[in-house]
Design brief:
This is Lipoprotein. This protein has four helices and seven strands, in the order H-E-E-E-H-E-H-E-E-E-H. It is of the alpha/beta class.
Amino acid sequence: MKPFILFTLSLILLAGCSTTALVNTQNRLPETNTTAQISLFELNNYTDTPRAGMRATNIVEGVLLAQGYHLKTHINQKIDSLEDAQDSAQEDKSDYFLIGGISEWRYKTGIDGEPAVSLQLSLYSTKDAKLIWSATGSDSDWGNGSIGSTAQNLIEQMTARH
């Protein structure tokens, strides 16, 4: 009986150390087996961490490329509005454009310093700037985890085609 109680407590502790929250629109990302192109813009950085938007955008780019999407990356281009992103995507002849923001990109304070990431992604149709897909997610990990791996796992969950 004692090993069972220890095992159960271990599972509860392990489950409590990593937290993921995720909200997606009902729509899915477009199929990857088409020639549709996505213009990807640097995610807005709403954190105190320098270059968090660029770092997260780089991970989004890698995940989407690995999933088979065709991208035109504007990782160094700042956009001021939805219309600016739409104009650039039209110049690229992209079918879609992806924008978003980072609201948390840090190591929590405390003994373990767990990584914590929160971000939002939105995919729009270039033709009419209509929202096609959106996801918002937050994740934290163990103290020995990195922000990059935590962000990559979160982005993979956000963009997964269920």
